[in-house]
Design goal:
The protein is an alpha+beta fold and about 350 residues long. The chain contains twelve helices and 17 strands. Helix 3 packs parallel to helix 12. It is globular and about 65 Å long. Its cofactor is Mg(2+). This is Inositol-tetrakisphosphate 1-kinase.
């Protein structure tokens, strides 16, 4: 249901994304918001506490995430998004209840770590050290492997993999010695959210492995019916969508294919498979209890609340799943109903903070 009474957002920094904000007649209302309450003329109760979310995002992320529908719904629910000015000390801005960020670089990480120490009452989504763990594909999936998750709903594992940091000429022998089977999926070792980090290659024969460019993570290709599941996690909420992926490779085809094939981006939103006429054995979503257990374990082990998993089901099985990638703060704008899920999550964080401060 759409509410009609809205809180007008104000951006202290003067900049919100790529738009300029001109200060004017709103000065009196800003002082009310800075106090943490609604403006006096607002029809809602005066003591309704705003949840103030400072955000530090790239212009691309602002465009995809802070869409008008999200901002409108947030205002109606008492959530205020404020742009963080990276040219001013973070401690001089706010006060914030939550800091939402997705920027890279050592300097920014240090700023956030210092801020977390001096402002323990503010929730930082998410801790920079925890995010850094996902920037390396070797460590990214290790926590999944360590879980050895298996129950009556299925088994979750990772594909067999190895890391190649240099010397492409040695890759064929290294792959053979490790016992990995062709075809081999090659992914950049660094997963920093850049376009390059999303590129992947598939090598179909031993000789072509020399053409790969380290540093890389090499994974055995697992046939999965050409469909993967993107599992979005926002706090305790879970949303799953189907995406088209790479097609299966049979052994007969493998003997006739050679070379390295590069794919700039697999499973993007344009490759949605939710409305496709698929084999039920391929299209069936992973069991919800299995995903809930997996998400809970990963939230604890990773120390993150905003991430997604790329999961595949081994073709020909019903309950063998593999996690092939984990991403921090993914493209939530492509997730159905993300506006409601995300605002509910922010509200729950704000309410829990308010109770702690009041107790």
């Amino acid at each position: 249901m759409r509410l009609h009474d809205e809180i007008v957002p104000f951006h202290r920094s003067g900049i919100r994304g790529d738009e300029e904000y001109v200060e004017g007649d709103e000065e009196e209302e800003i002082s009310s918001i800075e106090a943490g309450f609604l403006p006096p003329h607002h029809p809602c109760p005066l003591q309704r506490k705003l949840v103030v979310v400072g955000y530090a995002l790239t212009s691309k992320k602002i465009k995809s995430f802070l869409q008008p529908k999200l901002e409108g719904l947030a205002r109606n629910k008492g959530i205020l998004f404020l742009a963080i000015d990276q040219n001013r000390p973070l401690s001089d801005q706010g006060p914030f209840d939550i800091v939402l960020h997705k920027l890279t670089g050592k300097e920014w990480r240090q700023i956030l770590e210092d801020y977390r120490r001096t402002h323990p009452e503010v929730t930082v989504l998410d801790p920079p050290d925890a995010i850094q763990h996902l920037h390396n594909r070797q460590s990214m999936l290790q926590c999944v492997a360590d879980m050895n998750l298996s129950n009556s709903y299925g088994k979750v594992d990772i594909p067999r993999q190895l890391v190649i940091k240099k010397d492409a000429a040695s890759i064929p022998d290294t792959v053979t010695n490790a016992g990995l089977m062709l075809p081999i999926v090659a992914k950049p070792l660094v997963a920093d959210g850049s376009a390059k980090s999303h590129e992947l290659s598939i090598a179909y024969d031993q000789h072509s492995l020399k053409k790969l460019e380290p540093p890389l993570v090499l994974q055995e290709f697992v046939n999965h019916g050409g469909v993967l599941f993107k599992v979005y996690i926002v706090g305790e909420a879970i949303k799953v969508v189907r995406r088209f992926s790479l097609p299966d490779v049979c052994k007969r085809e493998l003997s006739n294919i050679a070379g390295v094939f590069r794919f700039p981006r697999v499973s993007c939103a344009a490759a949605s498979a939710d409305d496709a006429d698929l084999d039920p054995g391929v299209a069936e979503l992973p069991p919800q209890p299995l995903l809930e257990r997996l998400a809970k374990e990963l939230r604890h082990r990773l120390g993150l609340r905003l991430f997604n998993l790329d999961i595949i089901r081994e073709h020909g099985t019903r309950d063998q799943f593999y996690v092939i990638d984990i991403n921090y703060f993914p493209g939530y704008g492509k997730m159905p109903e993300y506006e409601h899920i995300f605002t509910d999550f922010l509200l729950s964080l704000g309410q829990s903070q308010y109770k702690k401060r009041s107790s």
